[in-house]
Amino acid sequence: MAGALGGFNAHASNIVTAVYIATGQDPAQNVESSHCITMMEAVNDGKDLHISVTMPSIEVGTVGGGTQLASQSACLNLLGVKGACNDSPGSNSRLLSTIVAGSVLAGELSLMSAIAAGQLVKSHMKYNRSSKDVSKITSSN
């Protein structure tokens, strides 16, 4: 991981940032928290896929700052990690970091599936934000 600036992943930072904004985290912590190595390996003679993410530096908190905003507080409450845990200090933050990593894993699997099925470019071309149908534009080069 030390030699992999940012890691090897499809789009971990997008997922981390989305969860951070939803839960009142500092979005600037995305830089360190998005370090991620995504591994995929065929197992059981190619019948199954084992996927994992390694994220050694997820920085989260469940008290203070943006966690006190109404919507972000409600999201933390929905996830069951709002505030401090008196019985086990830090456990809510550890659980939130696990939720972040699980969300990244789901996003990585979704994006890689779309790429493998050839659907990513097709959907971007179909639902692009341009008023032009860019799928019919030809290059003059």
UniProtKB/TrEMBL annotation:
Its EC number is 1.1.1.34. It is found in: Endoplasmic reticulum membrane. Pfam families: HMG-CoA_red. It is a multi-pass membrane protein. InterPro entries: HMG_CoA_Rdtase, HMG_CoA_Rdtase_cat_sf, HMG_CoA_Rdtase_CS, HMG_CoA_Rdtase_sub-bd_dom_sf. Signal peptide: none annotated. Keywords: Endoplasmic reticulum. Gene3D superfamilies: 3-hydroxy-3-methylglutaryl-coenzyme A Reductase, Chain A, domain 2. Its main location: endoplasmic reticulum. This is hydroxymethylglutaryl-CoA reductase (NADPH).
